[in-house]
Amino acid sequence: MFAGFFALNGNGEMTGTAWVKESGFLEGPVLLTNTHSVGVARDAAIAWRVRRAPADALGYYWSLPVVAETWDGDLNDINGFHVKERHVFEAIEGARAGAPVAEGDVGAGTGTSAFGWKAGIGTASRRLAADDGAYTVGALVQANCGRLDQLTIAGVPVGRELAGERKGKREGGSIVVVIATDAPLLPHQLERLARRGALGLARTGATSGDGSGDLFIAFSTANPGVWGAEAAATLRALPNARLDPVLDATVQATEEAIINALVAAETLTGMGGRTVEALPHDRLRAVLKRYGRLVE
Question: Which of 26, 104, 186, 272 has the highest CB neighbour count under 10 A?
Fold first, then answer.
C-alpha cells in the first residue's frame, strides 16, 4: 500500500521506514512493542513471512518489516525480554478486518503512561463525505508521552487542574501514531497526513521533548493493484486542493485516539511494585463541566 512516514522527534525506533520513504510503499503489517523487543518482533515478522507465504517472483523472501516502539521500563520488566516469536505470530494471525480494536492496557500499551497517568493503546476515526462516496480516516496510537501539567482535553488545561500535589516528571516519553485511510492518496500526500498527526498530538498539550520518540506512519488502502505491477499502472488520487478535509480528520482522530488511550486505561502495578494510576473519570468530568465542555 502507498505510505508515508514522519519523525517529529527521533529518540525512538520504527524499522523499515527508510524503505517506506524511498519506495513509497508499506509492504506488511505495522508491529508495536517495547524498546528492547524491536529486534525479536522484526525477526519474527520475517520468520512468519518465510513460513507462511511463497517467495516473490524472483524466488526471494526479502522483507524490511515496520516495527515501532515506546519505552515502558517504569512498569515493564523491559530487560526480561518476555516478547517472543510466538507472540508476534499470534498478533499477525489474530488480526481481523472489522473487529473492535482493544484500547488501554493491552498489547504494547500495557506498560505505557502519558501525562502522568496510565495510558496505552487508543484509536479513533472520522468519516468524510465525498463526491465519489465517503472516505474514512483512522488513527491508532501507542501513547507514552507528555508531562502531567501539559494534558489538554477539548482545550481545557486538565493536567494543571488535576495535578494537585502530584509531581510530574520531565517529559521523556514517546508516541507511535499509525494513520490509515481508504482515501486515494499518493506517498507524498500520505507523508503530509503523517505530519498532521503531530498536530493532533500538540492539541493534547504534548510538546515532543528532547527524549521523545514521536513517530508517525500513514498508509492508504486505495490502489491495491499498484504494488507489484509489471507494467504502467492506472491509479486514483485526490487532488491536493481536496485534501483539507482529510487533513482535518487526521488531526481530530489522532487527538481523540490519545485521549481514548488515557480514558480506557486502568490503574496498573508493574515491576518493583510501581503503580501508575488511571485518569480519574469523575474528576475529569467535573473539570470539563466547570469549563463548559461537558454535555450531559
Answer: 26
Domain range list for the chain: 3-290
Q: Which of 37, 63, 113, 212 does the annotation list as catalytic?
A: 212
The partner residues of 2 in beta bridges, in order of sequence, read 25
Residue 145 has what pLDDT? 96
Rg (CA), the chain: 19
Active site residue 131: no
3-state helix, strand, coil in the chain (%, to 5): 35, 25, 40
Percent of the chain with pLDDT over 70: 97
The answer, as to whether pTM is greater than 0.90, is yes
Inter-residue contact 41 to 88 (CB < 8 Å): yes
3 state DSSP class of 181: strand
Cα 148–Cα 264–Cα 289 angle in degrees, nearest 5:
65
CA distance 26 to 222: 12
- Of 72, 105, 149, 214, catalytic: 214
The topology under which CATH files domain 3-290 is L-amino peptidase D-ALA esterase/amidase (3.60.70)
Identify the active-site residue in 63, 174, 208, 220.
174
Catalytic site includes residue 214: yes
pLDDT tens column, 49-97: 999 888 877 777 889 999 999 999 999 999 999 999 999 999 999 999 8
Mean pLDDT across 112-116: 96
